Every structure is written in C-alpha cells, then in structure tokens.
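Morning!

This is the sequence you dropped in the shared folder:
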Amino acid sequence: MTQAIPKLMTFDEFLEWKPENGRYELHNGAIVEMSNPTGKHSVVAGFQAIEFGLEIRRLQLPYFIPKECTIKLDDTGYNPDVIVLDKQAVEANESRWERESVITRGDSIKLVVEVVSTNWRDDYAHKMIDYEALGIGEYWIVDYLGLGGSRYIGSPKQPTLSVYQLVDGEYQIRLFRGSDRIDLAVFPELDLTAQQIFNGG
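The structure's back. Tokens below.
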C-alpha cells in the first residue's frame, strides 16, 4: 500500500528530505511512501539481479547492477526493483551518480524492472509512460501474482511478465506466461522462462 505525504517538493528537496529508513518515491512533486516488499517480492527481484549479474560477468559486458538507484524525471524520482546500468554511459554522462546514486538519462539504463505489488497502477501506467519518455530501452513489469488490470494482462488474470522494448521512441509490448521463454534485447542468450522468474528460481 502506498501513502502520499501532503507536501509538494522538488527532486532536490526530496533527496535532502529522504530518510535513511523507509522506502519513498517522488511522483510529480508528491512524496509517496512505498510499502515494504514481501519476502516473495524480494526473492523474485533478487533472482533477476543474480541472473543478470551472472550474464554480465559471463559475457564481460560493461554493465553493472547497483543496490540502490533513483531515476530522475523532472520532479519525479523512482527507485526500481532491479536496474542494469551501462558503466561507460554513467561515467560519461551522469554527474549526479557518484554523490547521489541518481540517473537522469535513459541511455544510461540498459534494463529496468519493477516487481508488481499493490501499487500495480504505478508500474503499468505512470512508470511505463515516464520510462518511455526518458528513452529507457527495455522495461519489465513482473506481475508474479497477476494483480494488474485486465487491460494490461488479459482475462482471466494470471501471472504475467510484460516486456516493453523501445522501438522508434515508443514501447512495443510482449507478454510472457508460464513456460514461455523470455526474449530479451539486453541479454539475448539468457535462457529463462516466465515461471522461473515468478518462482524466483
């Protein structure tokens, strides 16, 4: 469950205010307290980070996966569940990274993942629109409980991995379920099914 805190802030004010404990995002100037992830949510996100990290090492790709990261878009700041960053792009273009762990450019991000919880509308609507506008090449929504609206995951609802890939400035969407093998632009050789991701391994 998310809870809005009734005071509008700039992104910089938000970073200065943000406490060490708790999980907060900034949505169009409004501070939103995010619920703590469940154990399963953490397992699903952690599994993906491990699999992506192993693939980065195996292929010796110039990418990394930070433990924390805030994506800045005007007066909005998102903290994704998993993010894969391009090391060279971050070093060349992200002046706020070293002191604040802030990313401001879509071309610094190879892949961003949101694992769905009760705030599924943010993942399917707001974040999708914002990530597309920032030019993030690949965005995953991992809905391992099938919580999203029927217009996003179909009916009857079922666990669904939505993969958004940027083509000519717009996201093209593909849905994966059950034993479907995931087709990634970033890690094309990674051999995982949707169910493996939903199970966290």
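Headline: The longest helix spans residues 39-59.

More detail when I'm at my desk.
O.
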